[in-house]
Design goal:
This protein is of the alpha/beta class. Helix content is 37%, strand content 15%. A hairpin with a 2-residue loop joins strand 13 and strand 14. About 1% of the residues have low confidence.
Length: 435
């Protein structure tokens, strides 16, 4: 049995002054049960909790730690920046350097506006789409998450003309009524929506590779049709690449699928582990932002010099020619071996998928293509597997609906440890079944 005494004590104390004891809900382990681990430090592919337990990390801070935790190059850049001051509330040269790196590698980027989080970026992109088109309705897709923006915390209505319903307290019906929710990868519903409401649609926001209903890849024809409909009706196509930007390839999902969005939202990797987001896109749309346009957007810590330094250092590593081939190989070989181990242990409802350094494990027989597919998973089996892996020193995402992430530092020892833990976990599960 793992020692979790200190984590339990910290959690009980946290619940007296922090709602639920956590500052982001998934950290509370509500989806899997048990005691959330309080992390003291991390290095490379490993996490170390307050009880001294070591874990192979498979979420990498939900994506940013793509070069490994506490990478010396990144830490050195942060130290150097901190010594000059933490925040100025004025422009810095680093902001332009980071924008130039992003612009160089993202196909559909002419200009960049930095924010302090991915949520800020998507919120700003939605406002910009409405300001640019002078239309109000936004289309999103079931299972895609775009931060805790009021108008995007919405579930599907009962029919195409029934607009979204709030999925969170504090979101007025009137906000949700401006949002249309469609099924992911469904061409027929997409075309029907634009045929009926195209003239009212300011923009469409989508995770071009979904990561918030676990990893779900798009159909090429679906993305192509989406681009065509947005062009036809002068609606702004927004790719939410907060998760996939500089994570699945050097040019994100838009490079992989050859689709140019009008706007792109970024976060996670571009901050190298520090709070950071960005809205990027075509010049004619981006110039609608203040101070040169009518759409107001601001942030005291936007372009924070320390976060910018971390981002530049991380992207300098990530954009090297051999980085993504190496990361992709590590991740694809890992998922292939994991499937093999499951099969050898007669685990039938199990499969995996990956793209770049992003992966999904599914407790179902086939790789999901839709939100409905993902809901048809053996959630109870996942919970058992999660705790078996945790006990064997592997930290998986504490939810069956979250994608996983690896870093280049996972090569070798860390991957071996995950696969060994999986072998042990599957054998343990089978043994308990047969009792």
């Amino acid at each position: 049995m793992q020692n979790t005494k200190s984590s339990k004590q910290f959690f009980e104390k946290a619940k007296t002054c922090i709602p639920g004891g956590v500052n982001s809900p998934v950290r509370a382990f509500n989806s899997v049960g048990g005691i959330p681990r309080f992390i003291r430090s991390a290095k490379g592919p490993f996490l170390y909790d307050v009880d001294g337990n070591e874990y192979v990390d498979t979420i990498c801070s939900w994506g940013p730690a793509i070069v490994g935790h506490a990478n010396e190059t990144v830490i050195s850049a942060i130290r150097e920046s901190m010594n000059l001051g933490l925040s100025f509330g004025a422009p810095t040269e680093g902001e332009t350097r980071l924008a130039e790196i992003i612009k160089k590698h993202l196909p559909a980027t002419d200009m960049v506006r930095l924010t302090s989080s991915g949520t800020e970026a998507t919120m700003s992109a939605i406002r910009l789409a409405r300001g640019y088109t002078n239309k109000t309705k936004i289309v999103k897709f079931e299972g895609c998450y775009h931060g805790h923006v009021d108008s995007l915390l919405v579930k599907a209505g009962s029919g195409l003309l029934t607009l979204g319903n709030p999925t969170s307290g504090g979101v007025p019906d009137s906000f949700a009524a401006e949002t249309i929710v469609l099924p992911y990868n469904n061409l027929e519903k997409l075309n029907d929506c634009f045929n009926l409401l195209g003239d009212e649609i300011a923009g469409v926001i989508i995770e071009p590779i979904a990561g918030n209903m676990n990893l779900v890849k798009p159909d090429q024809d679906f993305l192509k049709c989406l681009r065509e409909q947005c062009t036809k009706y002068n609606s702004v196509l927004i790719f939410d690449e907060v998760m996939t930007g500089f994570r699945v390839s050097m040019g994100g999902a838009q490079e992989i699928y050859g689709i140019d969005p009008d706007l792109t939202t970024l976060g996670k990797v571009i901050g190298g582990g520090m709070p950071m987001g960005a809205v990027t896109g075509k010049k004619q749309i981006m110039e609608y932002l203040a101070p040169i346009g009518p759409v107001y957007q601001a942030g005291t810590l936007s372009g924070n010099p320390v976060a910018v330094a971390a981002g530049i250092a991380t992207l300098t590593i990530v954009t090297k020619e051999d980085f993504f081939p190496k990361l992709t190989k590590i991740t694809s070989e890992f998922t292939r071996e994991l499937e093999k181990i499951a099969k050898e242990n007669n685990i039938r409802s199990f499969c995996c998928d990956s793209v770049g350094g992003m992966f999904g494990i599914y407790f179902r027989q086939t790789i999901p293509k839709t939100f409905e597919d993902m809901m048809d998973s053996d959630v109870n089996f996942f919970k058992i597997f999660f705790h078996e892996m945790l006990a064997n020193g592997v930290y998986l995402a504490p939810s069956p609906y979250e994608a996983g992430f690896l870093s280049v530092s996972h090569e070798g020892e860390a991957i071996t440890k995950i696969l060994t833990a999986a072998e042990s976990s599957f054998k343990s599960i089978n043994a308990k079944k047969n009792k």
